[in-house]
Amino acid sequence: MWDNITAQKFRDIRGHVISAQKTIGGVLCGLGIKLSAWEERFPKSDIGGPIARSEMLFAEILPGLDNLNALENEGRASKVA
After folding, report:
1. How many beta carbons lie within 10 A of that of residue 34, not counting itself?
2. Residue 81's pLDDT band (cuts 50, 70, 90)
3. What are the pLDDT digits (tens) for 43-57?
4. Is the confidence at residue 9, as pLDDT, over 60?
5. Rounded to an integer, what distance in angstroms lies between the CA atom of residue 40 and that of residue 33?
6. How far apart are CA 59 and CA 71, in angstroms?
7. What's the rounded Cα separation, in Å, for the pair 75 and 61?
8. Quick one: which of 79, 60, 58, 74 has its CA closest to 26?
9. Contacts made by residues 68-75, CB under 8 angstroms, sequence distance 24+
């Protein structure tokens, strides 16, 4: 890949790296926010029963996961020439 690299190839790779950083950062940020909310609500394993946990799951964790999945899929679709 690095043999006979041209300025255009370098720009393409640079663009891919920047795109990947945005994708990884976006997905990790979204998941981090959701996991932090879970940890804040249930700081210990004996806090919150199954009903409270399922309510949290459906109300706060699942909404938006499709957006994170779409962001990840967009990142996977971008390729370096």
Report:
1. 19
2. very low
3. 998 999 999 999 999
4. yes
5. 10
6. 21
7. 22
8. 74
9. 68/26, 68/27, 68/30, 68/31, 71/23, 71/26, 71/27, 71/30, 72/23, 72/27, 74/23, 75/19, 75/20, 75/22, 75/23, 75/24, 75/27
DSSP state for residue 50 in the 8-state scheme: H
Instruction: Specify whether the CB–CB gap between 68 and 31 falls below 8 A.
Output: yes
DSSP states of 6-43 as a string? Answer: -HHHHHHHHHHHHHHHHHHHHHHHHHHHHHHHHHHH--
* Radius of gyration for the chain, computed over Cα atoms and rounded to the nearest angstrom: 19
